[in-house]
Write a structure and sequence with these properties.
209 residues; alpha/beta; Ribosomal Protein L4, Chain: A; 6-stranded mixed sheet; 6 strands; 14% strand
Length: 209
Amino acid sequence: MQVPVVDINGKQVKTIDLPADIFEVAVNKDLMHQAYVRQMANARLGTHKVQRRADVSRTTAKMYAQKGTGRARHGSRSATQFVGGGRPMGPQPRDYSLAMPKKMRRGAIRSALSALAADGQLIFVDALTIKDGKTKEANRILNTLSSERKLLVLVSGPEEDVKRSVNNLPNAKTLNANYLNIRDLLTYDRVIVPLAALDVIKKIWGQEG
């Protein structure tokens, strides 16, 4: 697949060939969905907890006499039907993480990249430089490269000027190409890919020998 490469002013400077084993694989929507659900589940802390009857710190003395009051028999005030008592049911700490084989995770990323490439949602830039990390300049460049609102900008290294300026924008985010993930690829309208970041993608997501 041949795609154009533009500069930060939106002018095409050349075309490049994308590796078919990353950007032209059969798109597997079910696999991408499974990977997305896994990532979102693994992000959950699972630290939620309610106090059940055994956890409530209240007196264990019987509320009133067993007989003679004409009322129902009750024991401790920590019973679930009383104000201040324990919760009868409710969340307890748990692990939400899901497992997924490595080949399936890699296949999901390749499917996402292939789908984005086929839809023209990947914008390849020869080099992305933002002088002095100015947010105004970052906004100008991104508006030139795409009219879409939500943009994901890939970086290949520290590139602090790019990160600082782009991350100040409300509808844009930078992501190191080493940490490419299914959630970010599917969330943003366009993905800005400098050629240095593309080299990282080729190295990590190319077919294993």
